[in-house]
Structures are given as C-alpha cells and as structure tokens.
Design goal:
Distance between the termini: 87 Å
Structural class: alpha/beta
Strand content: 5-15%
Mean pLDDT: 95
Largest sheet: 8 strands, mixed
Radius of gyration: 25 Å
Number of strands: 10
Shape: globular
Low-confidence stretches: none
Strand order of the largest sheet: 3-2-1-4-5-6-7-10
Length: 474
C-alpha cells in the first residue's frame, strides 16, 4: 500500500470514527484500522464512502499507508489495551514516528509510556479529547502532552479539527499543555470539574423539585433564563433540553422515569485520589464522586427512607427569591469547583515539573468540551492579569460575584438543610469558602490531639521551632 495518509487512527468506536470524519473534512487523508476489521469495511461502505479515508486490515498495512514520520492515533480503552496496542505497533515503527493515545488514560501511565517510546527512538503523545460524539465530529477540546518535538507535527491537524472560540471564531480549543502526562492530567482535572458541575446542577434541580414543587418543564424554563446569563454553559443547556423531554412509552417526563442510580468511569475518582496525594482540597469534586456512590445504594436508601423520617419541607414565602438564591448558590459553588481544579493544576505543575499555562487551559475548555462555559473567559482574564494567582476566588471579578451572591448562597444551603434535601456539593463549596477565608481554623486543637496520642509535635504562634508536650503529668 502506498504511503498516502497524513495521519492514522486505530479504534473505530463512536469517538474514533467521528474524529476520522472530522480530520478528513479538514482536508487530511486518514488511514484507519480496527481489530474487528469488519468495522473498517462498514465505515468505508457507509459514512466514509467517497472520502479520503484509507482502510487497512492489519497493522502492517496500516503502517504502510502512512507518510513519514508516521502519526498513529489510538482510540482504545484505557489500561492494558493501550500497552498491548503499543507493543503491536513497535515492529512497524521507524525512528521519529509518533504514537498518540487519545483515550482517557491515567496520567502516570502516559508518563511511563512517553519514557518507554522515547527510549526506543520514537515519540509519544498523551492527548485528552473532550466533547463526546458530537464534539469529536464537529470540533472537540484537545489537550496534548508528551514528547515536545512531536507537537509541531500534530499542531496543524489538531488545531484544525478542534472547536473554535473567540469573537472571530478563530481561537482553537487546543494548545500544547506540557511534557509526558500533562495532557492527560489536564483532561483528568477537566473530568473532575465535570463531575462537580453535574452534581451542582442536580442539587439545584432537587431544590426546585422538592422545595418549590416545580414540574420538569417549569424547571426547563428557569434553566433557559439562566443559560442567557453568567451560568451559560453546555451542561445547563443539555439539562434544559432533558427536562423538556417526554417518555414516548408512558407519556411521563423522561427524567421522572429514569432510575436515580448514577454510574461513573473512574476519572472523578482519579482526580480525588491525586488531590489527596498532593494535599489539595477539592471537596466539590470529591462530594460529586461520593454522591454517585451513594446513589448506587438504591435498595438501602429505599429501606432507610421507611425508617428515618425527614423533617417537614419548608414552604418558601417568595418563590422567585428562592429561585434567585438557588441561582446564586449554583454560580458561587461552580466558582469554588473551578478554583479548586486550578489549585490542583498548580500543585501538579510543581510536583511533576510541568510548565502549565492556566489561561490557555481555560480557553481550551471554552469550547468543544463538556464543561464549556461562558465564565471560562473570566478565568482566562484573571490569569492574564495575574499569572501567579494562587486561587481564583481572590481575583477581583470572582471575589465580587461571590460577595454579591453570598447571602443568597447561604440561604439556599440553609433552606435545603432545614428541609432535609441533600446538597453535599453546595454545602462543601460553602464550607471550603469559609475555610479558605478564615485566618484561624481549629487545626490548633487538632495538632494538640495528635501530639497527645502520638507525640506528633506542633508549632507555636509565639516562637519558631517544633515542640512536644507531656500532656499527662506524672
């Protein structure tokens, strides 16, 4: 087979197939291969018919179809499958060839794979891709990291297929993130923030449903209004659409016939685990992971609901005032979640020696991805104005938003708690804010406790050094 393809892609599930069509639509010739080769034939006979897409029925044939240096993008399940595929590719690689992992791989695996392939004279990119099926086809957010010299080779392709933002629609939601695992790390934090965003919207929904007795279409109208303001985002948009949908079988609202038992694929857990390793508090994201785990205990929750009576639901005196309070609580909590995410990125940059550009990351998330939202532009401005900003909530714009909405935020959380409506993400976001703005926390007592039972020592406020007290006198 003559070498004619600009790039190749292995793994023709939904994301892979749509990325192939996206690349071809931007003028690139793409080689494709899938372990189940009938998928290759189906694509060529179907959606790819008449397009500049070259099918291959073996890895050798696939490699032969690619121009040098070969660019091979793998869209397979994260984990051992990626390592297995790399080993299959190795005999067909030449020095300087580039292997690209576009799946949801855990960043330590990407660090390891980058070192491994570079040691053999090849190059490796770990690339976060977000946007789902539609984004892959029309323009995703792309977060590349890995072998630095590989980026100029892929930059034209990735920036061509990425979503575009800006007043002229000419800023690609794709830029170089950093060495080895940086790209997949940024995608992991994106997914952690996504968990938080989704949970926060669900808690606003629960309050509208249980405190205000609103129907799904009434809630959809509220979200329609909210999506025209600072909460404008993809997740608000799709939630608005979900709440308008009826079940064709029963005629009920679709959201009311779906079992309240959430699934997860693990990226939120990875974010939480890594934050604990780095000592960075990300309670909104962690609570979102816990909420999904709690939802899975459906049978236990149903049994408990028959034994543990809830408090009476408080009827608000003014519906519109409470709706505004929920809006402000959602926005302030969202700010906390993103602030925590960017603090985690700062800690990771230090720990793993990455030179991360936080404003650039905000713009990569501005379009194409699941957490795309209008206020990411304000995050970009905040880091442009102060590149060393330690926490987003200290930036003038976000500080002003929080202080204006703080009383409503507290009111919304209080109303939910008093009526027994679980709002763990709202509550943890507020507690994080109160903790971060507190010059004095009760950790002094905690250190005394640790020193009492384990001689862990403590520092003093009045002089330097490390101290221990014999708490039990002879």
């Amino acid at each position: 087979m003559a070498a004619q393809a600009d790039i190749g892609l292995i793994g023709l599930a939904v994301m892979g197939e749509n990325l192939v069509l996206n690349m071809e639509s931007r003028g690139y010739t793409v080689a494709v291969y899938n372990r189940t080769t009938s998928k290759v034939d189906d694509l060529l006979k179907g959606r790819a018919k008449g397009k500049k897409i070259v099918g291959a029925h073996s890895i050798a044939e696939f490699a032969a179809a690619l121009k040098s240096p070969r660019k091979m993008m793998c869209m397979v399940k994260a984990g051992p499958a990626v390592d297995d595929l790399i080993e299959q590719l190795l005999p067909h690689l030449e020095p300087g060839d580039i292997v690209i992992d576009g799946g949801n791989s855990f960043f330590p695996d990407t660090i390891r794979r980058t070192k491994y392939l570079e040691s053999k004279g090849f190059r490796f990119l770990g690339v976060g891709v977000s946007g789902g099926e539609e984004g892959a086809l029309k323009g995703p957010s792309i977060m590349p990291g890995g072998s630095v010299s590989a980026w100029p080779e892929l930059k034209p392709i990735f920036q061509a297929i990425a979503a575009k933002v800006g007043s002229k629609g000419d800023i690609p939601c794709c830029d170089w993130v950093g060495t080895d695992g940086a790209g997949h790390y940024v995608k992991m934090v994106h997914n952690g923030i996504e968990y938080g965003d989704m949970q926060l919207i669900c808690e606003a929904y629960a309050m509208m449903k249980n405190l205000l007795n609103m129907t799904p279409p009434e809630m959809s109208e509220v979200l329609e209004r909210w999506n025209k303001g600072p909460l404008d985002s993809y997740l608000i948009e799709i939630t608005r659409d979900i709440l308008r949908k009826k079940d064709p079988e029963t005629g009920k609202w679709m959201v009311d016939v779906i079992l309240d038992k959430a699934g997860q694929k693990g990226t939120g857990k990875w974010t939480s685990q890594n934050a604990l390793d780095l000592g960075i508090p990300i309670p909104v994201m962690m609570e979102a992971v816990v909420a999904r785990s709690l939802s899975a205990l459906k049978d236990e929750r149903v049994a408990a609901s028959k034994l543990l009576a809830p408090p009476p639901v408080r009827t608000p005196a003014n519906k519109e005032e409470l709706l505004q309070a929920i809006h402000d609580a959602l926005y302030a909590s969202k700010i906390m979640s993103y602030a925590q995410g960017f603090q985690l990125l700062r800690a990771a940059a230090f720990e793993y020696k990455w030179d991360l550009n936080y404003g650039s990351i905000a713009m990569m998330w501005r379009g194409g991805c699941i957490i795309r939202a209008r206020f990411l532009e304000e995050i970009k401005k905040a880091f442009d104005q102060e590149p060393g900003l330690k926490n987003l909530i200290l930036a003038p714009y976000f500080r002003d938003v929080i202080q204006k909405g703080e009383s409503n935020w507290r009111r919304a959380v209080s109303e939910a708690v008093l009526s027994g409506i679980p709002v763990p993400a709202f509550t943890s976001a507020l507690s994080y804010y109160d903790g971060y703005r507190s010059a004095q926390l009760p950790a002094n007592l905690l250190q005394a406790q640790r020193d009492y039972f384990g001689a862990h020592t403590y520092e003093r406020v009045d002089k330097p050094g490390v101290f221990h007290t014999e708490w039990l006198e002879a």
